[in-house]
Design a protein that fits this description.
This protein is an alpha/beta fold. It folds into 2 domains: 178 residues, FAD/NAD(P)-binding domain (3-Layer(bba) Sandwich); 123 residues, FAD/NAD(P)-binding domain, CATH 3.50.50.60. The strands form 5 sheets. Strands 1, 2, 5, 6, 7, 8 and 19 form a 7-stranded mixed beta sheet that branches. Strands 10-17-11-12-13 form a 5-stranded parallel beta sheet, with helices on one face. It has a 3-stranded antiparallel beta sheet with strand order 14-15-16. A hairpin with a 2-residue loop joins strand 7 and strand 8. It is elongated, with a radius of gyration of 21 Å. It binds NADP nicotinamide-adenine-dinucleotide phosphate (NAP).
């Protein structure tokens, strides 16, 4: 039986791993399908304290993992397939095997939200992508017009990154003001290669018949006018959905699938704690996720001390 299992290796999971490892709890840390979490798909992180010139997202996560391993965390590339948290001991099915634990910290993060269009799904990886850092430099996008969908920090960041490769970047937003922070919005809107397309939604990604992206069909939400904007790539940056499907019915969640935290990082199940983007739809920052990971580790440590006294 494990003392504590941490699910997820983003900022929340790895911070919880550092703290529980230093508390001699010998944590087992499960990576899920994206070791390092969403931050590994970003370029430069400029707002994590301690890095005045910024730090590469992948490097930051690699360093956190090294720090956790240095103190004895066991990091395993594995995915939770099933959870039974309603009975003691807490049981997870991990890559076909049952694993039991006295305490669990869920830090499973969030994934990219999809528009939900049929054409979007059919053209995924054929010009539709959810990560500019991962795919922006591909030959198919070089010196070609591309579009970014969204109006948040991610959309601005992706659009700016893509100006390195694309001939032009259209930023398609469903309103006429960006949700992004002022610094990011100003940078994007002042970039001569970025052209905002306001009040518009993508109604179809073209062209499924050609099995590649050739453009997007747009509708102006105010005038209802439609237009086709030719492009070689569509970069979706419309937010995230929590990776909590496997815990449905096991811990209390809100209607969007975010796990409900009460009294710090406690969930509705004793011994199960939560941290990071899978429970936070408000702040969603690397540093807040790390902070919650720390809190969850301390809460788990105190819970185990009471349980085993
Ligand atoms: P976000 O802030 O939730 O923004 C999502 C954007 O997508 C919004 O503009 C939203 O429009 C739009 N959207 C959502 N669903 C849509 C749909 N179905 N169709 C069309 N548009 C849709 O998400 P995010 O930009 O990924 O940022 C998430 C968090 O990470 C934020 O807290 C952000 O500050 C943080 N972040 C920070 C940085 C940084 O500081 N460098 C970089 C990236 C992300 P509305 O505005 O109309 O709702």
């Amino acid at each position: 039986m494990e003392k504590v299992i941490i699910i997820g290796t983003g900022c929340a999971g790895l911070t919880a791993a550092i703290y529980t490892a230093r508390a001699n709890l010998n944590p087992l840390v499960l990576t899920g399908i994206m070791p390092g979490g969403l931050l590994t798909t970003t370029s430069i992180v400029e707002n994590f304290p301690g890095f005045p010139v910024g730090v590469d997202g992948y490097e930051l996560m690699t360093r956190m993992q090294q720090q956790a391993e240095k103190f004895g965390a066991r990091i395993k590339f594995a995915t939770v397939e099933e959870a039974n948290l309603t009975q003691s001991p807490l049981t997870l099915t991990v890559d076909g095997e049952k694993v039991q634990a006295q305490a669990i910290i869920i830090a499973s993060g969030a994934g990219h939200r999809h528009l939900g269009l049929d054409s979007e799904a059919k053209l995924e990886k054929k010009g539709v992508t959810y990560c500019a850092t991962c795919d922006g430099a591909l030959p198919m996008f070089r010196n070609q017009p591309v579009v970014v969908v969204g109006g948040g920090d991610s959309a601005c960041e992706e659009a700016m990154y893509l100006t390195r490769f694309a001939s032009e970047v259209s930023l398609i937003h469903r309103r006429d003001t960006l949700r992004a922070s002022k610094i990011m919005a100003d940078r994007a809107l002042n970039n001569p290669k970025i052209k905002p397309v306001w009040d518009s939604v993508v109604t179809e990604v073209l062209d499924v018949a050609q099995d590649k992206v050739t453009g997007v069909r747009l509708q102006n939400v105010k005038t209802k006018a439609t237009q086709v904007l030719p492009c070689a790539g569509v970069f979706m940056a419309i937010g995230h959905v929590p990776n909590t499907q496997v815990f449905k019915g096991q811990v209390d969640m809100d209607e969007n699938g975010y796990i409900l935290a009460k009294r710090g990082t406690e969930t509705s199940v004793p011994g199960v704690f939560v941290a990071g983007d899978c429970c936070d739809h408000v702040y969603r920052q690397a540093i807040t996720a790390a902070g919650m990971g720390c809190s969850a580790a301390i809460d788990a440590e105190r819970y185990l001390a009471r349980l085993n006294q």
